Amino acid sequence: MSLIVKYTKTGNLKYISHLDVLRFIQRAVKRAGIDAKYSEGFNPHMKTSFGFPLSLGIESIGEYFEIELNEDIKPDDFVNRMNVVMPKEMQILKAAYSEDSRSLMARSSYTEYLFNVEFVNLDFNKLNELIKEIIETGIVFSKQKKNKKNKIITKEYNTKDFITYLNAFEKTGKTVIEAIFITTETGSMKADDLIKIISDSGFNIDYYTILKVDTLDENRKSLL
Amino acid sequence: MINIKKLDRELLSVEKPARYVGSELNSVIKNKEDVSIRFAFAFPDVYEVGMSHTGLHILYHLLNSKDNIWCERVFAPWTDMEKVMRKNDIPLYGLESKDELKKFDFVGFTLQYEMSYTNVLNMLNLADIPIRSKDRTEDMPIVIAGGPCAYNPEPLYEVVDLFTIGESEELILELMELYEKEKISGFNKLSFLEKAAHIEGVYVPRFYEETYNDDGTIKERKILNSNAKEVITKRIIKDLDKSFYPEKSILPYIDVVHDRVVLEVFRGCTRGCRFCQAGMVYRPVREKSPDTLVNQVESLINSTGHDEISLTSLSTGDYSCLPDLTLQLLDKYENKNVSISLPSLRLDSMTFDIIERLQEVRKSGLTFAPEAGTQRMRDVINKNLTEEQILGPVETAFNLGWSTVKLYFMIGLPGETMEDVMGIKELSYKVKDKFFQRPKEEIKGNLKINVSASCFVPKPFTPFQWVKQDSMDEFYDKAKSLQKEIKDKKVSFSYHEPKLSYLEAVFARGDRRLSDALIKAFEKGCRFDGWYDVFDFNKWMEAFEETDTVPDFFAKRERELTEVLPWDFIDTGITKKFLISEYNNAMKALTTSDCRQQCYNCGVNHKLIGGACPHVINS
Ligand code: SF4
Questions:
Q1: How many CB atoms lie within 10 A of CB B432?
Q2: What is this structure's pTM?
Q3: Which of A41, A219, B267, B470 would disulfide-bridge B412, Cβ 3.0–4.6 Å?
Q4: What percent of chain A has pLDDT over 70?
C-alpha cells in the first residue's frame, strides 16, 4: 500500500540537503513505530520515494514523499504519529493513499514559489515592467553546466520557457513575488536564477527568502 | 543574537551549512529569561567529529536537565566558514540560541587530543574573547576545560581559567551550584575561582607558579593563593548504573562520524598496556549492568530511530556480561533492522558465534591490533598477546568467511630495533599465509590485509612518561623501510605522519613554557592541526623559533625517574611507584598480567575506592 505524504521543510532545515532529508524521514518512520516495507536482500532499505530535490536554502510548505507500508494505517493516524517525532520545522501536513500509479516526479508539472524580497530604492513600476518582459518576451540567461563528458559548457535559456506565472505586490513594506515555474527533469531554471535575473537587470536586492508553496500536477492542482 | 540575515546570506557559500545552524531533533531550546546560567559546550573540531563524541551528549543533557541552566553547543568552524565569519563580522555563536559566545556564563572546552589546541584559541578569538585569561574582564565568560588532555593541562595554563580533572558528571553540577550561589551574592570572578578550587578535581592554574632549573627541568611549583590545593585528585563516578545517562541524544541531519547509538558499557581497563594513557587514567574498571544498558539502548533507539547500536569501551571484549548483553540485544533488535557493532573488540577474548551474528562487523572487515611485530616488543609494551593468540583468531575469522583484515601497529616504541620493525612485516605475512594455508576449496573471497603503523607518542601517567620519542628521521626511516619491504598485492602498508606525532608528543608532555609558542602558532594561522591537509608544520617550527621554544626538549628527551614532571601535581589514583615498577619491567621485557587475575596495587584501590578493586577474580 502506497501512501503519499505532504510535509514542510522550514527554518534552519532549509540548509539540509535532499539526501539528508531522506535519511531523516526514514528514521522518523522508525521512531514513530510505523511498519514500513523494506527491500529484500543483504542490506535492506525502507521503500520510500521522493519528489524532485528542493534546492538548498529554500524553505517549503509543499514537499512530498511516498512510502510503502505493511500496516493498514489511517492517513490521519500516520500524520499524528509522525508529527510527534518530527521537529517543528518539518511537519507532516497531509497523507493519503494513492490511486495514481505514476511516480511522484512524473506527476510534478509545476512548482509554486513565493519570493520575499527586500529591495533598496525600489521603483515598483520598473519591477512590473521587468516581470512582464520575463513572461512575455522572455529574457535569455546563460548558465554553466557540465556536459556528459564532464566538460563545463555555457548554455542559454529563456525565462518564458520556464515561468508561466509571475506577479509582484507590496505587503507591509516588503515586496512579495509569486511565481509558478514549469518543473523540468533537468532543473534548468531554478528559483535562485530568477533573483539573479532581477538583480542583473539593475535592481538592488539587500535580502531575500524563497518559499516553495507547492508542487502542482498537470492541471495546476496540488498533488495532495 | 547575532545578525541572522548576515549569516543567512553567507551560509550557502560554505560547505555543509547544516554544521552551523542547530535545530536538530532532541536539541534543547529554552527561554533565556527562565535560566540563570548559559553554558556553551565547545568542541574544538568540526561538527561531525564533535557530534560523534559520547561525552558531549552526556554533559549536554545533564546540564540541560537542570531548570536554571541552558547548555548549548559550539564547534570549530571549518576554514571556509571562518573566512566568512571574519569577513562579515559574524562572531562565534551558540548553535541553539544563535547568541554570541561572549554573552555566555561559561565556555567549556573538551580536550580530546592535543592537536585541537589551536582550535581552542581560534574559537575564543572568533568569539571576540581574549585568549589569555588575564586579559578577560569580569563580564566575559569563564573558560573551563576537561577531557583526557586535561591530565596535563599546563600548555593551556594561560588560556583556561579552570580545568576539571577526571570524570565530570558530578563535578560540573557542583561547579554550577557554586556559580549560582556566587551570582546571587554578587559575582566576582576571583572569589568564584577561589571557592571552586576547593571542589575536588578542580584545577585553577593562575593560583600556581613554576620555577625552572638551569637545565630547563622544573625546580618547583609554588602555590600563590591559599585556596589552592597542593595535589589535584581526579574525579570518578563510583556507580555507573546510578549515574546520569541521557534518554535522548541529538540527532544530526548530516552524516557524522558515528551515525549510531553509542553506548559505553564500562569505564576503565585492566589490561595494563604500557603505552596507553586511557588504560591508566580511567582506572578503576566500573561496569554498567546489562539491565541498565538494555534500558538505555531502548530509549536511545526510540528517540533517534538509529539502525545501529555500538557498544564501546576501551576493550569491549572484557565486559563481564558481554555474551549475555549482546544476545539480549540481538534477540530484541535483529528483526527490527537494527544492527549491533562492537568496536575495540579483542578477538582473542571473544566467542565467534556472537561476532558471526553481528553483520556490521562482517561488512567492514575485522580489525586486529597486535601493536608490535615481535614478541619481545609486545612484552615491552605489555600487550599480553602471543603470536598464537593473534594468528588463532585470524584463522578462525578466515574460516568463517572474512577476507578483509586490518592490522594496527606502532613504530618507535621504547627500545625498538630494526628487527622489531621488520617483525611487523613478518607478522603481516604470517597472517596472509594463514589465509592460503587452508584447503583450496575453503579459500573464498579476495584477501586484503591493510597494515597501518602509527608513530608512538609517550604520554603522561603511563610507564613510558619518561622515555624519549623517536626523531622524525628515525620514524621516516622505519616507515619507509617497511614500505619498501612490504611488497605484496594482498598486503598494503600505510603509516601515520611523523610530523603530526612529533607535535603531539611535544604538547602531550609539555609545560607552561609552550603557551607562547601555541599562541604564536595560532596567530600565524595554524588551525585543525589534526587534519593533515590543513596542518602546516613549517608555521609551527617558525612559532617555536620565534618564541625561543625548543620542542625537542619535550618530545625527544629521556627524563630521569626523579625529575619533577609538569603533571605530577595531579593524582590519577595510580602511584608513581607503580609506574616506575612498570617502567622497569618494560626495560627488562617482563610482562604484568591483566589485573583481573591479580591485583598489582597500582594505587586506585586505596586512593579512589578505599578497598580492593571489585573486579579482581582472586580477591
Ligand atoms: S588496584 Fe589492582 S586491580 Fe585495581 S586497577 Fe590497580 S592493579 Fe588493577
A1: 17
A2: 0.93
A3: B470
A4: 100
Per the structure, how many domains does chain B have? 2
Looking at residue B471, what is its pLDDT?
Answer: 97
**Positions of chain B with pLDDT lower than 50, given as ranges:** none
pLDDT at B407: 93
CATH of the domain at B441: 3.30.750.200
The residue range of the domain holding B123 is: 4-233
The per-residue pLDDT for B336 is 78
Taking the CA of residue B604 as reference, the ligand 1 atom at the shortest distance is: 1
CA nearest A70: which of A104, A44, A101? A44
Reported ipTM: the value is 0.89
B518 close to B527: Cβ distance less than 8 angstroms: no
A2-105, CATH topology level: Alpha-Beta Plaits (3.30.70)
Ligand 1 atom at shortest distance from the alpha carbon of B619: 3
pLDDT at B596: 87
DSSP letters of B421-470?
Answer: HHHHHHHHHHHHHHHHSS-GGG--S--EEEEEEEE----TTSTTTTSPPP
A57 and B12 within 8 Å at the Cβ level: the answer is yes
- pLDDT category at A37 given cuts 50, 70, 90 is very high
Q: What is the pLDDT of residue B495?
A: 96
CA-based nearest residue in chain B for residue A31: B305
Quickly count: other Cβ atoms within 10 Å of residue B21's Cβ.
20
A22 lies within 8 A of chain B by CB: no
| Beta-sheet strands, E only, within B57-135 | 69-75, 106-110
Asked whether B428 and B491 are in contact (CB, 8 A), the reply is yes
Which residues in chain B touch residue A82, judged by CB atoms under 8 angstroms apart? Answer: none
Out of B540, B557, B577, a domain closes at: B577
Contacts of B22 in chain A (CB under 8 A): 12
Q: Which CATH number fits domain A110-216: 3.90.1150, 3.40.30, 2.30.30, 3.30.70?
A: 3.30.70
Query: Taking CB atoms and an 8 Å limit, are A17 and B254 in contact across chains?
Result: yes
Centre a 10 Å sphere on the Cβ of residue B618 and count the other Cβ atoms it contains.
7
**Start-end of CATH 3.30.70.580 domains in chain A:** 2-105
Final residue in a domain of this structure, among B556, B577, B598: B577
pLDDT average, residue stretch A172-178: 91
Of B8, B9, B23, the CB nearest to A13: B23
Q: Among A12-21, A188-197, B331-340, which stretch is predicted with the lowest mean pLDDT?
A: B331-340
